[in-house]
Amino acid sequence: MTSLVTIGVILAAMAVVALIETAIPLRARGRWNWVHLGPNLALTFITFATNFFYNAGLAGVLAWSQSHRAGLLHRLPLRSGPALFIAVLVLDFSYYVAHVAMHRIPAFWRFHRVHHSDPAVDVTTTIRQHPGEGVIRYAFMAAFAIPLGPSPGAFAVYRAWSVLNGLLEHAHVRVPLRLDRLLSLVTTWPGLHKVHHSRVASETNTNYGNIFSLFDRLFFTFTPAARGRNIVYGLDGFDDPATQTTAGLLAVPFRDTATSRRPLVVSGRAVPLELH
Ligand SMILES: [Zn+2]
Ligand SMILES: [Zn+2]
User: Fold this and answer.
1) Pick from 214, 102, 93, 213: nearest CA to 145
2) How far is ligand 2, taken at its centre, from the CA of residue 58, in Å?
3) How many CB atoms lie within 10 A of CB 251?
4) Of 246, 166, 231, 156, which Cα lies nearest the Cα of 195?
């Protein structure tokens, strides 16, 4: 029941963001903004179904940790406020690490490229994921969350914040550049994540953060938000109509990678594929 309420809240939030997108769009809408709607919503519902099990499993482990006082946060003399802040910060770092891994490890990139193959980015792109990506994300989350031991409540707060931030960072909304720069001091929306959806690998391999921009700044993967205004979205080699269907996107991880133009990383620095 709780999960149905959660899904309802997420869909309602998506609808509100979609209305704002209509009122103040980042740019004029193109053909892809309409073509991607069906596959994006289908993958969103598939992800709701699969993530329900991953989420319930991890929340169950964290409830067990709480009752057995296992995990670092249960052993430190912290009040609930600081413990919640540390939990959100560390779990957001786990998202950053998982995201970098999905770009650098070819087997993971096969799944994550479904998200990047969207030729238009708006609120419906947020949960356009292959169900296999959820396995990777939750595995990384569990690797950080289980030793840390956040309470199930803190974990729920992190998940809600993460989803809300995801909707906002994909929103096809124009805001004043000054506000965009100001927000990017702390968080990743609206401009920073748009850079991450670029077709140019040296831009794609930056701005991995979800809630906080802190980790991109710390690990030199930060591209300023102003660049996010004129990005050409998508992934070369994945624009054909057969790929841009729900079935085509579900098959993407198992496709030949010869034409996939995986963003390359050489000596820790992203380089444009045109150089190769
Ligand atoms: Zn990515
Ligand atoms: Zn994205």
Assistant:
1) 93
2) 23
3) 14
4) 231
Which 3-state string (H, E, C) describes the chain? CHHHHHHHHHHHHHHHHHHHHHHCECCCCCHHHHHCHHHHHHHHHHHHHHHHHHHHHHHHHHHHHHHCCCCHHHHCCCCHHHHHHHHHHHHHHHHHHHHHHHHHCHHHHHHHHHHHCCCCCCHHHCCCCCHHHHHHHHHHHHHHHHHHCCCHHHHHHHHHHHHHHHHHHHCCECCCHHHHHHHCCCECCCCHHHHHCECCHHHHCCCCCCCECHHHHHCCCCCCHHHHHHCCECCCCCCCCCCCCHHHHHHHHHCCCCCCCCCEEECCEEECHHHC
Distance from residue 165's CA to the centre of ligand 1 (Å)? 15
How many angstroms is it from 125 CA to the middle of ligand 2?
Answer: 7
Q: For the segment 109-126, what is each residue's pLDDT rounded down to a tens digit? A: 999 999 999 999 999 999
* Ligand 2 center from residue 115 Cα (angstroms): 6
Q: Is the pLDDT of residue 80 over 90?
A: no
Residue pLDDT, tens place only, 152-183: 999 999 999 999 999 999 999 999 999 999 99
Distance CA 125, CA 118 (A): 7
Q: Ligand 1 centre from 36 Cα, in Å?
A: 18
Q: What is the pLDDT of residues 231-250, one digit of tens each?
A: 999 999 999 999 999 999 99
Total domain count, the chain: 1
In which band, very low, low, confident or very high, does the pLDDT at 257 lie, cut at 50, 70 and 90?
low
**Gyration radius (Cα) of the chain, Å:** 18
pLDDT band at 269 (very low <50, low <70, confident <90, very high): very low
Domain span at 231: 2-275
